[in-house]
Design brief:
The protein has 505 residues and is α/β, with parallel strands linked by helices. Helix content is 20%, strand content 17%. The chain folds into 2 domains: 28-181 and 242-420, Alkaline Phosphatase, subunit A; 430-504, Arylsulfatase, C-terminal domain, CATH 3.30.1120.10. The strands form 5 sheets. It has a 10-stranded mixed beta sheet with strand order 6-5-4-3-11-1-12-13-2-14, sandwiched between helices. Strand 15 (430-433) and strand 16 (437-440) form a beta hairpin. Helix 5 runs parallel beside helix 6. It is globular, with a radius of gyration of 22 Å. The structure holds 2-acetamido-2-deoxy-6-O-sulfo-beta-D-galactopyranose and calcium ion. The site of calcium ion has 6 residues, from loops. InterPro entries: Alkaline_phosphatase_core_sf (IPR017850), GAG_Ulvan_Degrading_Sulfatases (IPR052701), Sulfatase_CS (IPR024607), Sulfatase_N (IPR000917). Pfam families: Sulfatase.
Length: 505
């Protein structure tokens, strides 16, 4: 249905019809959520070892933030917070979800998709989900309707992978049903027991034709498309995704959604699988980065961004669309497969100038790329303001002029002026969630003590955990090398107090 929402008090006198429609229709919002793409993985953030021209163009026409944070250093908690405005650490069940996890955001919880839906938008989630589906872990009806699903938390349309590329089930789920499933070949999924007779990466390494897991890194259970994964599955042969087509499937469904809704306001959460493992670029990107699969999927990601922007331009709705481009957590080079990412890295620094990476309480864990583009509305340029993805919900409510209750927005704050590049300060603090909780005011950063291990050998990550309190002067020591906790006890006390206040509410 074609509806044009004329905002109160505005008229289009003298404007051509198409332009009038663009100026008076509520603006569309697209989130491009990358997976494991680090601050240094995009050329606009200064690493000239990789070329990502489409992202660069988006950044040039918008606001590029240099101190923006995901809430957590892994996907499930980070995405939970992004979509709900609640800190993931308020719950104990927001850790990295298995592929058969029950839906973590319960239907009664308010989400950013509810916000847009209630405001009359068409809403969609396309791509990586990783927040569970169905009522209870392991109880999903993979051969019927998986319920509750994304429709129950505000998304009219969904086309998703349940968890990650390296977790079963390796199928697309569209509006709660596995796509392409044949009734005589039902699908079974388990994270407890292997299915008798099904070969595993561990028992049949000779069947691993595409890539093998890194030594001791797991990923040696069900084999799908010559790659072993986490978890067990059998059946559903016709429904299995092809790894090299994952990104094209996401892009095609995303662009179709945009096209279908070009005349009505829409909210699209487009979550790419790039650059998560296993990294299998489409053949047309193979060899394009000179860095092997990890670099090639960055080029693929850049192409994706280009496709979105070109489509908006072609449909004449670019000016009326706000795009947020970001990533769910920091980068990791070896995350479990022998894809030569470490050997071929060369001078490229996915983590930029920061210490740590995905999984870490050091900055590279959550300091992520963050670009806001809304032609004619934002103050173009680079912003050093302190920004957190937790604010997406309240900021979008501000954008739509929708009042939220305290419980709905909980930890999320209205930051529209900052996201538009006009307020240069941003938040007073950001809280970072990895092995330990950390808090930064942009100048100083405090990491609370933790007895968890300090170093993850498998991924070669400094996790930032220490039994001692840590305090870094980020303004002078961006690499978090000098722990000043003992020299500045007052600063430690201040930051701890703010953190404690958040923990108490
Ligand atoms: C870890 C996996 C890693 C990746 C991660 C989730 C092992 C040893 N490592 O447990 O490969 O899948 O979970 O990544 O299994 S995330 O970006 O979705 O959070
Ligand atoms: Ca991730």
């Amino acid at each position: 249905m074609r509806t044009i929402n004329i905002l109160a008090g505005l008229t289009c006198a003298g404007l051509p019809v198409a332009l009038c429609a663009q100026q008076t229709q509520k603006p569309n919002v697209i989130v491009i959520m990358a997976d494991d793409i680090g601050y240094g993985d995009l050329s606009c953030y200064g690493e000239k070892t990789i070329q990502t021209p489409n992202v660069e163009r988006l950044a040039k026409g918008g606001v590029r933030f240099t101190d923006a944070h995901a809430v957590a250093a892994t996907s499930t908690p980070s995405r939970y917070s992004f979509l709900t405005g609640h800190y993931s650490w308020r719950r104990t069940d927001t850790g990295i979800a298995p592929g058969d996890a029950g839906m973590i955001i319960r239907p009664e919880q308010y989400t950013v998709a509810d916000l847009f839906k209630d405001a009359g938008y068409a809403t969609a989630a396309i791509g990586k989900w990783h927040l569970g589906m169905g009522d209870k872990t392991g109880q999903q009806n993979w051969n019927g309707l998986i319920s509750p699903g994304l429709k129950d938390i505000g998304f009219d349309y969904s086309y998703i992978m349940a968890a990650t590329g390296d977790r079963v089930p390796c199928v697309w789920v569209e509006n709660g049903r596995v796509v392409g499933l044949e009734s005589d070949d039902p699908i079974f999924v388990s994270y407890k027991e292997p299915f008798p007779g099904e070969p595993l990466g561990k028992t049949h390494p000779e069947l691993l034709t595409v890539m093998k897991p890194s030594p001791n890194h797991g990923h040696d259970q069900a084999i799908v498309n010559g790659i072993s994964r986490i978890g067990y599955m059998k059946g559903g042969k016709k429904a299995l995704w092809k790894d090299e087509n994952i990104n094209d499937s996401i892009v095609t469904h995303g662009l179709d959604f945009i096209e279908q809704h070009k005349d009505t306001p829409f909210f699209l959460y487009l979550a790419t699988n790039d650059a998560h493992v296993p990294r299998v670029p489409h053949p047309r990107f193979v060899g394009k980065s000179g860095m092997g699969p990890r670099g090639d999927v960055l080029v693929e990601f850049d192409w994706t961004v280009g496709q979105v922007v070109e489509t908006l331009e072609r449909l004449g709705i670019r000016e009326n669309t706000l795009i947020v481009l970001t990533s769910d957590n920091g980068p990791v080079v070896d995350d479990g497969y022998q894809d030569r990412a470490v050997d071929l890295l060369g001078k490229h620094r996915p983590w930029g100038p920061f210490r740590g990476g995905k999984y870490s309480s050091f900055e590279a864990g959550t300091r992520i790329p963050f670009i806001v583009s809304y032609p004619g509305k934002v103050k173009k340029g680079i912003s050093k303001a302190l920004v957190s993805q937790i604010d997406f919900l309240a900021t979008m409510a501000e954008f739509l002029s929708v009042p939220l209750t305290e419980e709905q927005k909980k930890d999320s704050r209205e930051q529209l002026q900052t996201w538009y590049g006009k307020d240069k300060k941003g938040r007073d603090y950001v809280i970072e969630h990895a092995g330990s909780l950390a808090i930064s005011d942009g100048t100083w950063k405090y990491i609370s003590p933790s007895k968890k291990k300090a170093y993850e050998k498998l991924t070669n990550t400094e996790l930032g955990n220490s039994p001692e309190e840590q305090l870094y002067l980020l303004k002078k020591d961006i690499g978090e090398k000098r722990n000043l906790a003992k020299e500045y006890p007052e600063k430690v006390k201040d930051l701890k107090q703010v953190l404690a206040k958040h923990l108490a509410c």
